[in-house]
C-alpha cells in the first residue's frame, strides 16, 4: 500500500488456536499475516469441513469479502502464534478503496487465491490419501512435529478416519514418521514425504 496509508494499520498478536475469521460472520477486519501460519477451511451445509489452504507470511486475509462486501466465506484459524497488521474495515474500507497500490495488490491476491483453490481441490480429488496426508503433514509441521486433530484432518483432506489411520500406520512402518503421543507425530524421513507431497496445500 502507499505509505500514506500506514497510519491506518494496527499491529495485533493472535495466539495459536484463535480464529481470525469465522464463516458466516460480517467482515470487520482484514489481516496482513506477518508471522505464523493459518489454515483456511470451509464447512458445507452437511457439516463436512474442507481444506482450502495453509498460509504463511506475507498473506492477505479477508480480501475477497473486502471487495464483495459479503459475509465471511471460510473459517481462518491460527495454527501457530501469529502477528498481523489489521485494517478496520468498518472505519477504513472507503479509504483503502482509493489506494491504487493496495487495490492492485488485492486483485493479484484474489487471482492467486483462485489458482490455489483450484490446485488444492485437484489434490483432494485426484491424489491418493498417501499423497494428501504427506502434503498436509509438510504444510503444518513445526520443527518436524505434527500435532493435529486427525479426525478433522481426515475430513479436510477428503478421506475417512479409518483410511487416514491406515496410512499413518503405513508411514510409521516405512520409517517416515514416528508416534510421539496421541495425535502427535515426529517426521523422520522428510525427503520421503516431500516426494509424496510434491503438490502442497499452500497459498
UniProtKB/TrEMBL annotation:
CDD domains from the UniProt entry: CAP_ED
> Which GO cellular component terms are attached?
cytosol
GO terms, molecular function: DNA binding; DNA-binding transcription factor activity
Q: Which domain of life is it from?
A: Bacteria
Listed A to Z, the keywords are: DNA-binding, Transcription, Transcription regulation
Spell out the PROSITE patterns in the cross-references: CNMP_BINDING_3 (PS50042)
Q: Where is the Cyclic nucleotide-binding domain?
A: 1-98
Q: Which InterPro entries does the record associate with it?
A: cNMP-bd_dom, cNMP-bd_dom_sf, Env_Response_Regulators, HTH_CRP, RmlC-like_jellyroll, WH-like_DNA-bd_sf, WH_DNA-bd_sf
| Keyword Aminoacyl-tRNA synthetase attributed | no
Q: Does the keyword Lyase apply?
A: no
Q: What is this protein called?
A: Cyclic nucleotide-binding domain-containing protein
| Species of provenance | Kandleria vitulina DSM 20405
Amino acid at each position: 500500500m502507499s505509505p500514506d496509508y500506514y497510519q491506518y494499520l494496527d499491529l495485533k498478536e493472535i495466539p495459536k488456536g484463535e480464529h481470525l475469521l469465522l464463516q458466516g460472520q460480517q467482515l470487520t477486519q482484514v489481516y496482513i499475516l506477518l508471522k505464523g501460519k493459518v489454515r483456511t477451511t470451509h464447512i458445507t451445509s452437511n457439516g463436512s469441513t474442507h481444506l482450502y489452504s495453509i498460509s504463511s507470511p506475507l498473506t492477505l486475509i479477508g480480501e475477497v469479502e473486502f471487495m464483495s462486501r459479503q459475509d465471511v466465506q471460510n473459517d481462518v484459524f491460527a495454527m501457530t502464534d501469529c502477528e498481523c497488521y489489521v485494517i478496520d474495515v468498518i472505519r477504513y474500507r472507503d479509504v483503502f478503496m482509493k489506494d491504487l497500490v493496495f487495490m492492485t495488490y488485492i486483485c493479484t491476491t484474489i487471482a492467486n487465491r483462485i489458482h490455489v483453490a483450484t490446485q488444492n481441490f485437484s489434490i483432494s480429488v485426484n491424489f491418493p490419501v498417501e499423497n494428501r496426508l504427506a502434503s498436509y503433514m509438510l504444510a503444518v509441521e513445526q520443527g518436524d512435529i505434527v500435532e493435529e486433530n486427525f479426525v478433522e484432518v481426515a475430513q479436510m483432506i477428503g478421506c475417512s478416519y479409518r483410511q487416514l489411520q491406515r496410512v499413518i500406520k503405513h508411514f510409521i512402518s516405512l520409517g517416515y514418521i514416528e508416534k510421539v503421543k496421541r495425535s502427535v507425530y515426529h517426521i523422520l524421513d522428510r525427503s520421503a514425504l516431500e516426494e509424496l507431497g510434491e503438490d502442497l496445500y499452500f497459498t
